[in-house]
Amino acid sequence: MDAKNAPVLSSRALNRATMERQLLLRRAAVPVGEAVSRLVGLQAQNTRPPYFQLFARLEGFVPAALSALMESREVVRIVTLRSTIHTHTAEDALTLRPLVQPARDRELNMFRSGLTGVDLDRLTSRARELVEERPRTMKELREELFLHWPDADPRALAVAARCRLPLVQVTPRGLWGCSGQVALTTAEHWLDTPPRPAASPDATVLRYLGAFGPASVKDMQMWAGLTRMREVFERLRPRLVTFRDENGVELFDLPDAPRPDPDTPAPPRFLPEFDNILLGHADRTRVIPPAYKGRNGVGNQSYGTVLADGFLAAIWRLDETRDSAVVTVQALGGLDRVTREEITQEAVDMLTVMSPAPGYDVRFGTFVDFGD
């Protein structure tokens, strides 16, 4: 179908379609590993957000369920999409990481001036030996590599190793209720498996649409951190359906994917910083109203997001002590009484599962920026 004649999907229609696929219209009764796979990973720049992402999406979720998968090495923390850390299933860690290697190569190019005279193949081989001998911190890796290339920039050496190798963060890093510095080894060593071929771009586009669609080519490229994906979408066009958003941008989708009625109720959800649904598109108006653009974070800092009726309505913060857990909700606009009550109940449900504190409180205020 000509893009000009394709049906138009409103922001609400796109919101409900994406909310449904992100398991946010209703909590899903699926195993944790299946959810991580269906969502094509969980943004995990910090260690706690994946747990809160899953609480918002899964029926009966408890943090120990994800920790158990990390301890059994069925899921891992690894740099993939957008060159950021994600929690992935073992299979996706092995196949998505080589798919997004071009993005890691672009990152490495920024450090070339500190790598003059360094044989990158030799560096990669030596770095692999080091991290497979035992997991290493970036500081340890930097110091070891500097012994071999004393004229290079030590930081650039460690970055080169991180860009060239599929490094996973080993446990206890990432386990619920545990702390630990980042220690790295290769995905193949940690998972005791040989390297896998990269996931095909075609299959990855289809999985993306299943989790984030309907979406544009630019949306998918932003999500993956890849470029030149137009030809993949064109190759897949006979297998897809097309729509337009309210600005006339062409959107692609799977023919049988759910596209709920725009008036489908969407309950409040507390999402952590850098949640998948906030980073899955170039055009984020399907979740963030234009009037609230930039209100859920400052620079590289992102706040927790409260969705009401499917859209960003407030930001939130959790403060915990041994005796109490306090959720502070800062509304970005007016919240009616019913919505405040629903948000309060969702916060209480979250605290009951996600905080060990015996007491809790939910407080409301107007937006002033948590950084102030």
Give a written overview of the molecule.
- By secondary structure, the protein is an alpha+beta fold.
- 39% of the residues lie in helices and 17% in strands.
- Strands 1-3-2-4-5 form a five-stranded antiparallel β-sheet. Strands 8-11-12-13-14 form a five-stranded mixed β-sheet.
- The radius of gyration is 22 Å and the shape is globular.
What is the structural class? alpha+beta
Low-confidence stretches: none
Radius of gyration: 22 Å
Number of extended strands: 14
Helical residue percent? 25-40%
Task: Please write the string of helix (H) and strand (E) elements.
Answer: HHEHHEEHHHHHEEHHHHEEEHEEEEEHE
Strand-residue fraction?
A: 15-25%
SS field, number of helical segments: 15
> What is the average of the pLDDT values?
94
Tell me the major beta sheet.
Answer: 5 strands, antiparallel
Strand order of the largest sheet: 1-3-2-4-5
Query: Shape, please?
Result: globular
Distance between the termini: 50 Å
Considering the chains and any ligands shown, give keywords for the structure.
15 helices; 372 residues; single chain; alpha+beta; globular; 5-stranded antiparallel β-sheet
